[in-house]
Design a protein that fits this description.
Length: about 300
């Protein structure tokens, strides 16, 4: 039975039962059946309810609350790979690496479809990376990419090559990733940062200008863009970008720590003050210069 038809049956059949009970057995029976059906609905759909509640808490910034609801969702349906996979993903984002490792392995074990298993494997690679197993994470995604070309795979593997320090490989791969998806901000950040690390600031600048059009919502894009702008001599815009980076959420899976960005901002501010002082000094020297004596015509 198709999902739309099943959804209709789930709504209409209980309504018919309640109506019949109310009509033939009386109001008390109808209300009683309605209460029973409501309880059954909550029991049967509690996993979805927990996940939905977790999503709302996440959007409001209550990450621990979201984590607790996802844990409850997993407890209500231990063999649901999607609920457990979402739980594992938030665990690793929040820094609970060992717990995430245990949960993602169970999620993959219970995956029913090959698509689910492959999607969960991307989270597995993130967990391996945060456990210090970068080489293993890269191997997992390289194998996965052979049968599963996906934006998340390209985005994750692209930054793992950078983390590994293999910038030539990173450039080759991130160019391929951009060909696959030229509007993904993470892929463009990976490529722009690779250009920066290789000293190709012109291509880095062009790539980050394109990335900004796609409205990235993670601090690395703005921090890395600021570094490119500094190299190109645009200190004012670099300061703006690094300050904006600090307004965004830093996760355990962020490739730069908040403290690094704060230190870089302090460095740029010192540079800005030095430039302003130099400019002021030159202006004062100019103002204090004696005017040239006019030459009298003979």
């Amino acid at each position: 039975m198709s999902n739309p038809l099943m959804s209709i049956v789930r709504v209409i059949l209980p309504a018919i039962l309640v109506y019949a009970a109310y009509t033939y057995l009386g109001p008390a029976a109808g209300i009683g059946l309605l209460v029973v059906l409501a309880i059954l609905y909550l029991i049967l759909n509690r996993t979805f309810i927990y996940q939905n509640r977790a999503g709302k808490k996440y959007q409001k910034g209550d990450y621990e609350g979201a984590l607790a609801d996802l844990k409850a969702a997993v407890a209500s349906a231990p063999k649901n790979p999607n609920a457990r996979g979402t739980y594992a993903f938030l665990l690793v984002k929040m820094g609970y690496n060992d717990e995430a490792a245990a949960e993602i392995d169970k999620a993959i074990e219970h995956a029913v479809t090959e698509t689910d298993r492959k999607s969960l494997t991307v989270t597995k690679a993130l967990v391996l990376w945060k456990q210090g197993k970068t080489d293993e994470a890269i191997k997992v995604l390289e194998d996965l990419l052979m049968t599963y070309e996906n934006t998340n795979v390209y985005a994750t593997l692209g930054f793992l090559y950078i983390e590994k320090g293999d910038y030539s490989k990173a450039l080759e791969f991130n160019l391929k990733a951009r060909d696959f998806n030229s509007t993904n901000a993470i892929i463009l950040d990976n490529l722009g940062y690779t250009y920066y690390l290789l000293g190709d600031y012109d291509n880095a600048l062009e790539t980050y200008q394109e990335a900004m059009k796609n409205k990235p919502n993670f601090p690395e894009a703005f921090y890395n863009y600021a570094r490119v702008l500094e190299k190109k001599g645009d200190l004012e815009k670099a300061l703006y970008m690094v300050r904006y980076a600090l307004t965004l959420r830093f996760w355990n899976t962020s490739t730069v720590k908040k403290e690094e960005v704060e230190a870089y901002l302090a460095e740029l501010e010192v540079k800005e003050k030095a430039m302003e002082a130099e400019k002021q000094e030159k202006q004062e020297e100019h103002e204090n210069q004696e005017p040239n004596e006019p030459i009298n015509n003979i």
